[in-house]
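Researcher: Here's my situation. A collaborator sent me these components and asked whether they could plausibly form a single complex. I don't have experimental data yet, so a predicted model of the whole assembly would be a useful starting point for our discussion.
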Amino acid sequence: MKILVCISHVPDTTTKVTFSDNDTQFNQNGVQFILNPYDEIALARAIELTDNGAGTVTVIHVGDASTEPTIRKALAIGAHDAVRVNATPSDAFFVATQIAAYAKDQNFDLILAGRESIDYNGAKVPAMLAEILDIPSVSIIKKLSVEGNQGIVEREIEGGKEVLAIPFPFVAGTAEGVAEWKIPNMRGIMSARTKPLQVLEPVEVQTSSKIVKFETPAPRGQVTLIDASEPQKLVDLLHAEAKVI
Amino acid sequence: MSVLVYVENAEGKFKKSIFEAVSYAKAIADQLNTSLTAVSIGNVAQDELQKLGNYGAAKILNVNQDALKSFINQAYASVIAEAAEKTAASVVVLSNSFSGKGLAPRIAVKLNAGLVDGAISLPELNDGKFIVKKTAFSNKAFAYVELHADKKVISLTPNSYKIVETGSQAVIEDFAATVKPTDLTALIKDIVRATDKVSLPDAELVVSAGRGLKGPENWGMVEELANLLGAATACSKPVSDADWRPHSEHVGQTGIAISPNLYIAIGISGAIQHLAGVSSSKVIVVINKDPEAPFFKVADYGIVGDAFEIVPKLIEELKSFKANN
């Protein structure tokens, strides 16, 4: 079984988000970057599914050379080889097109990605990629298993879940539940240095969107504290002042 | 030119988030001096479809074909794109539901359109530009996205746009969509829906609890408070990691982001990753025994004290409030 996992390089979850250049650029100063947590669970599941020689896992990332530590982390966790498309991503369609250009003649059985990246939260790449490749896509999945030439997935829906059987190949966007996070061991970290990392130049793409400005949320007003012995005051305030009940 | 809105149904009924999407799409149609068409896929009764007129849909394309009874995003995306071509739509609007998230990117690729996922306000149209505001960095920031393709696809975050009733009527037309068998290879085997609970992404009120509750056996009072308010229940990451509650209840940066009218956090300290998922809630109430808990800094109302004493009292107060209102 051949699995491709799409990975993204994102600011650490504890990052205080600020902007530079007149609020048009994310300020990377002092920011620690990590492998997107949702992609990391996708990778963990891919490794489980190909355990003991049952297949291979390739990771692909679109980014410049500075993102290579994130790719090496994925190799340390257990991916067999990696591909980096040497470009700074401009939007989701750009990324999906680059991945599709690589994947189209590689005969992957399954392409996994996190449900979304924790920076731009678009959740767009998996379904765009599937559309370009003209194969099924499914998101947000919490379980994934293999049954012959199809995948069995559990998808989240409002207030419940849906189980689907989808013939390979398809693209799935993963969330918590699909696997446990894997911590790379020393052997993994050592072997990651020598695993193959192929660098490809990007294909040309006409992008259709651009972020023109960022804004940070206005700070909230001072908290109104209510004495623990007077919870009825909270009920009154929620009704009369906040008007939410 | 026109505006098209996809109206997702849940077992033949439209939820509030769909009326929000129709109201939002109607406002865009007004901005562009054009009319709004809705496309519905699946088996929805005429009187339910007719409700959409009241939110501004002038016409409804009703796709009710056996092959399209259940949601397969590949096939539904093809139908919506076909409806967009038929109505010469320049803007396609969807609700950013779980299904909407899977549909919008496919539709955008089919139409060569620019996409904004999870919009939170109307487009700004200045000097021929089309700019839409959305949340980014897991609610720690907002991004203004300019779409420069001729066609645009926008998915709207639930609970971020107010419903506007227009009192008008819609014309319902049957629409026979082309169904490609290659779009229908995925097969739904089972659907499980908890019908007795409010679904978290749609919820206007949410009661959430964290490690301060000490164990899963103590969630009874959280559920009782939620039931009383008609609220959904949620939890922090350590709680779902410990399997005290299902992952689907985890709100925060790596769980789901919500923007309810009221978020009540019980025994949650308010780590930055948790705040990211809930900070766009309109009103935040924090109950925590630690007066230094960071959550108090972003709360509107707070009670410092023991949740095991406060929550049962709050439940009693709410019961008498409900009895009198």
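Model: Some features of this prediction you could bring to your collaborator: Chain B has two domains: 2-183, 200-324. The mean pLDDT of chain B is 95.
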